[in-house]
């Protein structure tokens, strides 16, 4: 499995003699062939600026990481030209199991908000491979089903004509064409899960917030919605989506907004308006779970499912990542308790980072939580952030023998057979 690297113009090469290495947390490792899958369609390759690739001359993972770190080598130049490490961003629905291995230069800029995975080149099969698992078979965001721009454009014109004054429809049209948001595209194509962004503010200040980065060296990757659609505009969009197909979902709480609980009263009013008109379809809330009373209000109004995002079940790591304002970790747990007691479908949106999420401390925290709070599902998300920045900011000290992401998935399947693992909000009946 050959080392993949880039030149400074981002051309990608494989090295004939060097074996690609990976990372768990900050520690280098090798992986076995069985850990690698062909690079999924729609994935991207990224160069890692001012970071040298790390390689090995041996093929398999034969020693523990703590014993073998000295055997990893750094490639700095090829034919006197400096080289950079390469990585992959895997399509949605896939969970990465190892990070790319690199040695940072002193002047290395912080990486932008993407989920970086290791990547290799298989010379026998002549394809790139990545350490990843297909965690959800649902095809809703598979890039293959989004190669349909002419059909999308026709649908946008059609739906804008039906709702000429609805600002949320206009916003989704912009998102589906300018940002190529696959969720927004699904709204116009009348299928799967429609995004319902509503809220320009937030009461967290996450290190990896995709929609707002204040006083930070990172740029947010999306623009936050800058208006507040009314309950009428919101319900119009949801009712339209629910009429378009069976088993569809409408979700508050997208990557392009703040936290929808800050508009809980308006959203509860919108849910009432929807349920006066249609009883099918799943109304879902993606949230930081910070305001349990608002969650209760929305459940009483007819919310069908909730997904609470977390980077860790350990409060210290949660606080260092979310940097909550005027709420506590205990409020998030209370929200989960309220949702479970109300009998709605409850998911965790758990941000995975190899070497951290599968560390002994994190696995113990997760198992302990699941024993007390039997949530229905964990959506296993690749955390989009510079791994070094993340680990340093949350103050994580490497576990030298992490369980491994694949083993963590196996453990969850075995010890919690009723727990569903996946990537997307499913259609559920309340
Ligand atoms: S909860 Fe969501 S919107 Fe709020 S800061 Fe965190 S990532 Fe951003």
Write the layout of secondary structure elements.
Layout: E1 2-6, E2 12-20, E3 22-24, E4 27-29, E5 36-38, E6 44-48, E7 51-56, H1 65-68, E8 73-74, E9 77-78, E10 81-82, E11 84-89, E12 94-96, E13 99-100, E14 102-104, E15 120-122, E16 127-134, H2 149-162, H3 167-178, H4 182-188, E17 193-196, H5 231-244, E18 249-252, H6 264-277, E19 282-287, H7 292-301, E20 305-310, H8 315-322, H9 329-342, E21 345-352, H10 360-372, E22 377-382, H11 387-393, H12 405-415, E23 420-422
Parallel strand pairs: 17-18, 18-19, 19-20, 20-21, 21-22, 22-23
Antiparallel strand pairs: 1-2, 1-11, 1-15, 2-7, 3-4, 3-13, 5-16, 6-11, 7-8, 7-14, 9-10, 12-16, 15-16
Helix pairs in contact: 2-3, 3-4, 5-6, 6-7, 7-9
The structure holds iron/sulfur cluster (SF4).
